[in-house]
């Protein structure tokens, strides 16, 4: 009877061990399933983040390209403005040198006479602002010395 009792206790122990083994396997399977689900969710989140970052990157590239274009246009306009500024500065210096020459050779015109003379010349560009000798050549005499 002791041997029957041993068999039944070993059989019940074997059942308990099998039952523990089965529960442990089921627990491991469930844990693995949860781990796979968690991993898949993490991969999906990373995929969404990659897509979002790629879109943001594309927008930044477009913004940079637009700003580069605008910068190039402003730089070109700035170069034109610098050239015009240099040209106008040179022209102003030239006109100032002419004015200085006029002042030196005119014997010191005062500003009122100079402005009046310039003003009249501007209004009537074909009229000479000072008196001149009349031209006395006739049309017949003009071509006598023609080669």
Number of helices: 3
What portion of residues is helical?
over 70%
Range of strand content:
under 5%
Secondary structure tally: strands: 0
What is the 3D form? rod-shaped
Poorly predicted parts? none
Terminal CA distance reads 163 Å
Biggest sheet character: none
Instruction: Briefly note the structural class of the backbone.
Output: mainly alpha
Order of helices and strands: HHH
Mean pLDDT: 79
Radius of gyration, rounded? 53 Å
Write the layout of secondary structure elements.
Blueprint: H1 2-106, H2 111-123, H3 139-142
Descriptive report:
This protein has 147 residues and is mainly α. It is 83% helix and 0% strand. The protein is built from 3 helices and no strands.
Structure, briefly:
The protein has helices at 2-106, 111-123, 139-142.
